[in-house]
Write a structure and sequence with these properties.
It is a single chain. The strands form two sheets. An eight-stranded parallel β-barrel has the order 1-2-3-4-7-8-9-10, surrounded by seven helices. A two-stranded antiparallel ribbon has the order 5-6. It has twelve helices and ten strands. It has 352 residues and is of the alpha/beta class. The two termini are 18 Å apart. Helix 1 links the parallel strand 1 and strand 2. Its cofactor is Zn(2+).
Length: 352
């Protein structure tokens, strides 16, 4: 991305798109009973509350009545239908992990098999987006957490802690290409989860080969443990690589969420919050629910002078439902240099 004169001035930036992640599949209801919805009615109401607070994108996971993360597509269909009816403008983004939470105490925290994950393209009603992980990597969500972050929660249990510490994201070339093809064929946008430069470069190559022909919508996932650490050097390095036509949301975990979101907000990027990412206020004197986290970001956006996007505006910024016919059109629309022809190696800047 290029940051020219005026890039930090709010009227030259898109309205802020806030993604809410309120379902927190790594937690059990006893970890934060005031804010973890369990019944279907409560899960739908949580989406409504997030939208009313200022979030225009819902990162969706589902819980069974016993409080465990659901792996049943029928439950996803039910929640999507309920949210769609209650807040029709909200962008629904299904977490592509389905649920990585262990099914029983001491069980491994692991992602489901590829065939099951591919079935997210068959959800009915279909979501607007499904998150797509890129390249197999370690996902130790605990690596940069402090002992106080998880004290008194289920993640402090040694068996559960070990399960999450050893978690791997399976996302090889065959899975990624097939998954993107199925989602695109269903009219569902791929929301790419980038952990570092190499995961981004893999998708750029998919675009240049014509595997993916749509808007480049992505999260920079700075949670450490096999992914980028949340610091300005990693973010700046990532930003230098991506084209100007991309839509980027920054994401981190625990008390890194707020400062990373403030940096992203100032730079014209977009933000994500919620108990899936963080349970605490910044002083860690009390737990902070998803709605309160959204309201905090809305207040800060006003201080920055940056307007917050509603659902309809977020759909335009994210280009929901947009796909392109050719590789050339996809490259141009996203701000990439064209594919090289012969000895011509592309352009440093896009030309008319």
């Amino acid at each position: 991305m290029n940051f020219l004169d005026g890039s930090l001035i709010p009227e030259n930036q898109d309205k802020l798109v806030i993604t809410a992640a309120p379902y927190g599949p790594e937690w059990v209801p006893s970890d934060f009973p005031e804010d973890i919805p369990v019944t279907m009615e409560a899960q739908i109401q949580k989406a409504v509350d997030c939208y009313n607070a200022g979030a225009s994108v819902l990162h969706l996971h589902v819980r069974e009545l016993d409080g465990k993360g659901s792996k049943r597509l029928s439950m996803f269909n039910e929640l999507i239908a309920g949210v769609r009816k209650a807040v029709p403008d909200m962008v629904i983004q299904v977490g592509g992990s389905i649920s990585f939470a262990p099914e029983s105490d001491g069980a491994a925290a692991k992602w489901l098999k590829d065939d099951t994950r591919h079935m997210l393209a068959e959800l009915d009603p279909k979501p607007d987006q499904v998150t797509v992980t890129v390249n197999t990597t370690q996902m130790n969500v605990l690596e940069h957490m402090e002992a106080e972050d998880i004290a008194g929660t289920s993640l402090a249990d040694p068996q559960v802690n070990a399960a999450y510490r050893e978690m791997i994201v399976p996302s090889g070339p065959g899975f990624i290409e097939e998954h993107v093809r199925r989602l695109s064929a269903a009219g569902i946008q791929s929301a790419f989860q980038f952990y570092n430069i190499n995961s981004y470069e893999t998708v750029e190559r998919l675009i240049r080969r014509g595997v993916y022909k749509g808007p480049l919508v992505m999260n920079w996932v700075a949670i450490s443990g096999g992914m980028d650490a949340p610091n300005i050097y990693n973010l700046a390095n990532f930003l230098r690589a991506i084209p100007d036509g991309a839509m980027l949301t920054v994401e981190s975990s625990m008390r890194n969420v707020l400062p990373i979101n403030m940096i992203g907000m100032a730079m014209g990027l977009h933000v994500r919050c919620g108990i899936e990412d963080n349970l605490w206020n910044q002083a860690r004197t009390a737990k902070m629910g998803t709605v309160a986290q959204i309201e905090q970001l809305v207040r800060l956006a006003k201080e920055f002078g940056r307007e917050v996007a509603n659902g309809r505006e977020a759909r335009e910024i994210l280009k929901i439902g947009v796909f392109y016919d050719t590789v050339e059109e996809t490259l141009a629309a996203n701000g990439f240099a064209p594919n090289p022809k012969g000895r011509q190696q592309g352009h440093l800047r896009r030309v008319a």
